Amino acid sequence: MIARFFLVCLGGALGSGARYATSVWAAGAIGTAFPFGTLIVNLLGSFVLGFLMHAIPVSSDLRLTLTTGVMGGFTTYSTFNYETMQYFREGALAVGFVNVLTTVAGCLVAGFLGFALARLIFGR
């Protein structure tokens, strides 16, 4: 139990660092008029989690580290919620709704594609 807790913590630290790096990159490369960093992280996170949960026959400890730890630290739905609420509070309703629709629909599609790719590669 304690060892698994530390594996999740280690994975979470790696995922959080990757989330930060992705957001910094997106802000510099794409700009800050829209939360592209958060969108990219959520889309990529949904895809990778869909892939990991289906593809790799690994130990339960490694799966826990990669999914709950790394991907849990990487994905940013709490940030997504905060940014969307800020748009609504500022009266930017259209941007807020675009953020909700593209994030939710995009993550569902990305998760499905990750699952489909894993099935294609691993045949399960």
Give an overview of the whole structure.
By secondary structure, the chain is an all-alpha fold. It has one domain. The protein contains 5 helices and no strands.
Shape: globular
Distance between the termini: 30 Å
What Rg, in angstroms, do the CA atoms define? Answer: 16 Å
Number of domains: 1
Largest sheet: none
Order of helices and strands: HHHHH
- Helical segment count: 5
Keywords:
globular, 0% strand, mainly alpha, 124 residues
Secondary-structure topology with pairs:
Elements: H1 2-29, H2 36-55, H3 60-74, H4 77-89, H5 93-122
Helix pairs in contact: 1-2, 1-3, 2-3, 2-5, 4-5
In short:
This protein is an all-alpha fold and 124 residues long. The protein is 85% helix and 0% strand.
